[in-house]
Design a protein that fits this description.
The complex is a heterodimer of chains A (455) and B (179). Chain A is an alpha+beta fold and 455 residues long. Chain A is built from twelve helices and 19 strands. By secondary structure, chain B is of the alpha/beta class. Chain B has a single domain, classed as HybD-like (Rossmann fold), CATH 3.40.50.1450. Chains A and B meet through helix 4 and helix 5 of A and strand 2 and helix 2 of B.
Chain lengths: 455, 179
């Protein structure tokens, strides 16, 4: 008979989420629900009536991790609405900013997942903070890669956390030849380190693929070869950067997107009937805890072509580079393969970039209320912003952020895994939960059917 | 080098009313011409993630964090805190799994001051833009205080902020570590 186990909160990712898992007698997940429990907020409502310059800045504040993706997607959705083509040199610096941010993000994600993995050839799990080799050198390399990403991002974007340089119509400032040379030098240093780090991570991942078990909470848990497999599709708008409605061949189509409400998707009321106090950190929820994912989930469920999809590094590689590794390990491998792609893209953009070129469109149209959208390939996947701008003011704004797409897909990918390794499946999506929490639900006729569940 | 000798980080979320105090002070400080050894950062919510876990104590010797803090004072009052004064969990990296806090790691090798401003209204999780008057009026005082801590004499322009009627005289102004 099925039992229910709850892991709340899940750890080593941004925001608050939890897992409600229906498992069989052997502890294998029959149905998993991974859901956000971060309170719902309404950035879309707040945006209405604000200027098109203000709204991307507001959007960049919904999360402490993804301000660059939201700034770029926000600005480009405005440009999509007002039909503003930006100068090529501005676009190139935005691409540099994007790739620098993703470089930092992959390096940080390495730290978050390494404790789930073993030093190859041993039964010793990796503690990224140990002063002992070989891990200490790896940790130092990760820190340097983060620094390089942040420094390049700061030069191209104006500031390293909330980029001040991008604006509707292009950029405020061009980068000088000196700044270009500095970014180039940093990228050269980064490329060597990224190669080394990618090789290290691939060795760790390939070692893990061969293992039959992993230790969780002092117990040996079997690792299925199909960990994290799902039958959902993939969605990616561009191999590295972004697409918008201004493109000749747009990489995303708003007509293919619909939402369903969480209560049509997640499990209903239940009670925890299996608990394990030895599960890290602090054990699972005690027996008797009431669960109700339908009502607790803080996100709508977006669908593309009527089904949930995976977004992120693997989706990009599947869509654009014929990558075919499935499951949790495949997802991690895809992310490592993007390490060097970021740096080669930075080189190519800088090679083309002309420091004396224009970086601001002139004139900048003020908009007639037409719909515009931009789908930015953020580290975690496709970050779609939609906007309507009229006379410089925002009439409509919507954010469809990567983790919102991944919640239902990842939930399906949990089936068949021992419940103790469910968090490993979740972490492979590099979730960012606080941005994912938006409760605007659009039905097939594009009508808003629910705006806020928790008032 | 990402961070120089002195880093001033304005932390908080402008979408939650007075929680935007830190970024607002960083914006004001960013308008000033300061020595190259000082970096002003609008850290937003990314302080622990993008700054505190990336500070290298071999390069950075001083960190000033500007944020709101509830210490039971009148709204708009500012006070200096040390890392030891902060409750557990302040500035914990949201990714942390061993509950280690980046400021605890740094505090013995970097001189850290947290300038806290008592908020009137923090609306989280609901969004509200704009600081309350009391907290808005604490901005010039905080800018002056940061400059004092840094030993930067910005001359008359900053001193005269007080006389330009840009803040109410409350008679309860505290700029230093009286707490």
């Amino acid at each position: 008979m099925s039992k229910i186990v709850e892991i709340s909160p899940t750890t080593r990712h941004e925001g608050h989420s939890k897992l409600v898992l229906k498992v069989d007698d052997a502890g294998i997940i029959e149905r998993g629900d991974w859901l956000s429990i971060t309170p719902v907020r309404g950035v879309e409502k707040l945006a209405i009536g604000k200027t098109m310059d203000q709204v991307p800045k507001i959007a960049s504040r919904v999360c402490g991790i993804c301000p660059i993706a939201h700034t770029l997607a926000g600005i480009e959705s405005m440009e999509g609405s007002i039909r503003c083509e930006i100068p090529r040199d501005a676009k190139l610096l935005r691409i540099v900013l994007q790739c620098a941010n993703r470089l930092h993000s992959i390096a940080l994600h390495n730290i978050l997942i390494l404790p789930d993995f073993y030093i190859p050839g041993t039964d010793t799990k990796i503690n990224p903070f140990t002063p002992e080799e070989p891990v200490r050198s790896v940790a130092k390399r990760i820190q340097r890669l983060r620094e390089i990403g942040q420094t390049i991002g700061e030069i191209a974007g104006g500031e390293a956390v909330h980029p001040s340089n991008p604006r509707v119509g292009g950029l405020y400032k061009a980068c000088t030849p000196h700044a270009k040379a500095k970014m180039y030098d940093l990228a050269k240093e980064g490329l060597v380190l990224a190669h080394e780090q990618m090789e290290f991570m691939l060795a760790v991942l390939n070692n893990m693929k061969k293992r039959d078990w992993t230790e969780v909470g002092g117990k040996q848990i079997p690792l299925p070869k199909t960990l994290g497999y799902h039958n959902q599709g993939y969605m990616a708008a561009h191999p590295m950067y972004a697409s918008s409605n201004l493109d000749d061949n747009p990489g995303w189509d708003p007509q293919r997107w619909t939402d369903v409400r969480p209560w049509d998707w997640y499990m209903g009321e239940g009670e925890v009937s299996l608990a394990d106090p030895s599960y890290p950190i602090g054990g699972t929820s005690p027996v008797g805890t009431k669960v109700n994912p339908q009502m607790e989930a803080c996100t709508g469920v977006p669908l593309y072509d009527g089904a949930p999809v995976e977004v992120g590094p693997r989706a990009r590689l599947v869509k654009f580079k014929n990558f075919d590794e499935k499951g949790t390990w495949g997802q991690h491998i895809a992310r490592q393969l993007e390490y060097t792609d970021n740096l080669y893209t930075i080189f190519n953009a800088l090679d083309e970039y002309n420091p004396s070129g224009k970086v601001l469109a002139d004139p900048i149209p003020q908009g007639d209320g037409s719909m515009g959208w931009a789908a930015n390939e953020a580290p975690r996947g496709t970050d779609v912003h939609l906007a309507k701008v009229k006379d410089g003011r925002v009439l409509y704004y919507e954010m469809l952020v990567p983790t919102t797409w991944n919640f239902p897909t990842c939930s399906r990918a949990l089936t068949g895994a021992p419940w103790q390794v469910a968090e490993m499946v979740v972490r492979a999506y590099d979730p960012c939960v606080s941005c994912a929490t938006h409760m605007i639900v659009i039905d097939e006729d594009k009508r808003i059917v629910a705006q806020k569940l928790i008032q | 080098m990402l961070f120089p000798e002195i880093v001033v980080a304005g932390c908080g979320n402008p979408l939650f009313a007075d929680d935007g105090f830190g970024p607002a002070v960083a914006e004001e400080l960013g308008r000033l011409e300061l020595p190259d050894t000082i970096k002003i950062v609008d850290a937003g919510l990314g302080g622990p993630h993008f700054i505190f876990t990336l500070i290298n104590p071999e390069q950075t010797k001083r960190l000033i964090i500007i944020d709101i803090a509830d210490f039971g004072a009148q709204p708009g009052e500012i006070r200096d805190f040390r890392v030891e004064d902060l409750p557990a969990g302040s500035y914990r990296d949201i990714h942390s799994w061993d509950l280690t806090e980046p400021l605890q790691r740094l505090k013995d090798s970097v001189d850290i001051t947290v300038i806290g401003c008592q908020p009137r209204r923090v609306t989280a999780p609901e969004f509200e833009l704009g600081l309350t008057d009391e907290v808005q009026e604490a901005i010039p005082r905080t800018v002056r205080h940061v400059l004092e801590l840094l030993g930067v004499d910005y001359g008359m322009a900053i001193k005269n902020l007080r006389n330009e009627g840009q803040q109410r005289e409350t008679g309860r102004e505290t700029c230093s570590g009286e707490g």
